[in-house]
Amino acid sequence: MTAPGAAYASPSPPSSPAEPAPPSDASRESDASLEKVRKEIEKLYHDAGVATDAYNAAEEKADKQSEQIVKLAKDIAKGEAKLKKLRARAGAAARAQYRGGGLPDEARLMLSDDPGQFLDGAGRIRQGEKATKGMLTELARTQDDLRIYAKDATARWKKLEANRKAKAASKKKIKKKIAAAEKLESRLEKKERARLRELEEDAALKRQSAWVGSGVLQGIGGKATPQGRKAIEFATAQIGKPYVWGAEGPGSYDCSGLTSKAWAKAGRGIPRTSQEQWKQLPRIDVKNMRPGDLIIYHSDASHVGMYLGDGAIVHAPRPGRDVTIAGAGSMRILGVVRPDK
Hints:
Helix content is 63%, strand content 8%. It has helices at 2-9, 25-99, 105-111, 115-186, 190-213, 226-237, 255-265, 274-280; strands at residues 283-284, 294-297, 303-309, 312-315, 324-327, 333-337. A hairpin with a 2-residue loop joins strand 3 (303-309) and strand 4. The chain starts with a helix and ends with a strand. Residues 1-7 and 10-17 have low confidence and may be disordered.
């Protein structure tokens, strides 16, 4: 991936030595106004990204809880079938005892015409009683298991419902933030929207230039592992596909949907959300990062991109943008994690 290095790691100075004409007061005022809009839009999309992570986390938990509830339902069905059989056996044993008169062994010995035959039969009866006792113990244990299963299923249903509510609340927040950002941008004239895009790119380039200028890339020369190369190959093949919150392919992605799917395709399952990727995956110093590593952004770990080398990442930026290559330092870096350590 040499193109990202040329494009992002070493920004070239302007080729023309001519001094640009100073901007007019009106132009400066317009840019100041647009810069304010840009920052407001950036914040709204950041908040939408945080809500998207919450949405994805709630969805992942709900999926797991649904699977657990299905398993518990199967266990309960098996337990009820077992309980039915045990109850049938217990009923048969009770009926047999009733037919025998329910007399104690001493009385039956005294009334027996053949004491030897009685004693032989009594041994078999004691064996039967022992088996019956074991069956009744198993019956009680099965009943206890069913009570535990039912209690567990109820608790999981409550958690599932809570996660569904959290997911719905996050969905509402996402839509609200995106709608507010789109409304701000829709108020601009076509020329202003184009200038807004330029200001976004200028801000990203300024942050990237400062990051590269700090010397952070000096000495970074790690090579991607075979798994890392597969993850990069998948992620870069998605370039041009739109960002859609909550999406993990194949036609669209959000930021962590792209990275989690890329590493899944490389044979390494990782957490679904950027916040969980930051919490659970091994952390790496920036100076030791290599292609395939994940760079986590913002203090709340609400964004993630995959490092390609040469100071560049591939990522799904935000609603209204497509999967693309960008400067790794064009956003505030929280840290780096490695899926295949």
